[in-house]
């Protein structure tokens, strides 16, 4: 039996995904396919049949079982139980806003005041910020700033809940000397808005599971035309991150099954400020060498 060498019981989805990420490069091709499927279908994997996952990954059902055993589970149903515990009862991302509010009302049984709800959500956001600071990859952040500073054009894409974040980045970057474009998709024109991207440009992508198909298309288009990509996402297994030129990872705090945007907006603001600082330094250096007109 191909059991994982570690026998420590997995306690959460995040812990499991971290183990999968660390082992991903060493996995056989078939198990890599299963890993990618699980990453992209976190909220539904608890209900999927082994045969359905095998079919989607173009592998034999036994490969799905071997995948679970690789990470210390006796079978795939045991792995599914980790997701079931995390997402069952309404905490899955696919649950409607109305259902999540209904769950909150049922859990609080009329005891929650508006202030107590606010404080709990603020506390969750604060936890997310602490995790962002602790997990910030200095090397990747510096690479992102350098890449943006060298870009001829900067395209920014984010859909659904990420759209507000993409809009903010565009607003902030327009205070620099850079040419910045929001790939809004208005009128369904994602393809038309990204078609002019070229070598020397940077595409900034903001996307979280389950990763919008529009965003994935824009990343493929950028890579096809030789542009660089900066991805802000939630996992190293994200289909957007694995081939990006730079990746920044952020896990939002959540309360009442609602995920905050606090950590991501903080990361975006930090990225803008660091870039603006770098660009101004470049201007100052040009002045000192006589290459900038007074």
UniProtKB/TrEMBL annotation:
Task: Please name the GO terms that the record assigns under molecular function.
Answer: carbohydrate derivative binding; DNA binding; DNA-binding transcription factor activity
UniProt entry tagged with the keyword Transcription = yes
Asked if the keyword Ubl conjugation belongs to this entry, the reply reads: no
SUPFAM superfamilies according to UniProt = Homeodomain-like, SIS domain
Q: Where is the HTH rpiR-type domain?
A: 14-90
Organism domain of life: Bacteria
Q: Which GO terms describe its biological process?
A: glycolytic process
Report the residue ranges that make up the SIS domain in this protein: 144-286
Matches recorded under Gene3D superfamilies: Glucose-6-phosphate isomerase like protein, domain 1, Winged helix-like DNA-binding domain superfamily/Winged helix DNA-binding domain
UniProt keywords (A-Z) are: DNA-binding, Glycolysis, Transcription, Transcription regulation
The molecule here is called Predicted transcriptional regulator of the myo-inositol catabolic operon
What's the source species' lineage?
Answer: Bacteria, Pseudomonadati, Pseudomonadota, Betaproteobacteria, Burkholderiales
């Amino acid at each position: 039996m191909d059991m994982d060498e570690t026998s420590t019981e997995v306690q959460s989805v995040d812990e499991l995904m971290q183990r999968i990420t660390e082992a991903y490069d060493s996995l056989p091709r078939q198990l890599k396919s299963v890993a990618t499927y699980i990453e992209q279908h976190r909220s539904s994997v608890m209900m999927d049949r082994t045969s359905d996952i095998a079919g989607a990954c173009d592998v034999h059902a036994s490969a799905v079982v071997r995948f679970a055993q690789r990470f210390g589970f006796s079978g795939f149903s045991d792995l599914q139980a980790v997701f079931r515990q995390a997402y069952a009862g309404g905490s899955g991302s696919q649950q409607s806003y109305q259902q999540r509010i209904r769950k909150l009302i049922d859990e609080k049984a009329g005891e929650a005041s508006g202030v107590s709800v606010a404080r709990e959500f603020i506390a969750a956001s604060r936890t997310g910020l602490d995790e962002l600071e602790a997990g910030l990859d200095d090397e990747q952040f510096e690479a992102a700033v350098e890449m943006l500073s060298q870009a001829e054009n900067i395209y920014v894409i984010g859909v659904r809940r990420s759209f507000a974040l993409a809009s903010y980045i565009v607003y902030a970057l327009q205070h620099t000397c850079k040419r910045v474009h929001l790939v809004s998709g208005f009128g369904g024109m994602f393809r038309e808005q990204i078609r002019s991207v070229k070598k020397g440009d940077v595409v900034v992508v903001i996307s979280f599971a389950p990763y919008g198909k529009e965003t994935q298309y824009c990343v493929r288009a950028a890579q096809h035309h030789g542009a660089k990509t900066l991805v802000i996402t939630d996992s190293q297994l994200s289909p957007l991150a694995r081939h990006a030129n730079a990746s920044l990872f952020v896990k939002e705090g959540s309360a009442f099954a609602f995920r905050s945007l606090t950590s991501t907006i903080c990361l975006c603001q930090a990225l803008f400020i660091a870039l603006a600082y770098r660009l101004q330094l470049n201007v100052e250096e040009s002045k000192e060498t006589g290459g900038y007109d007074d």
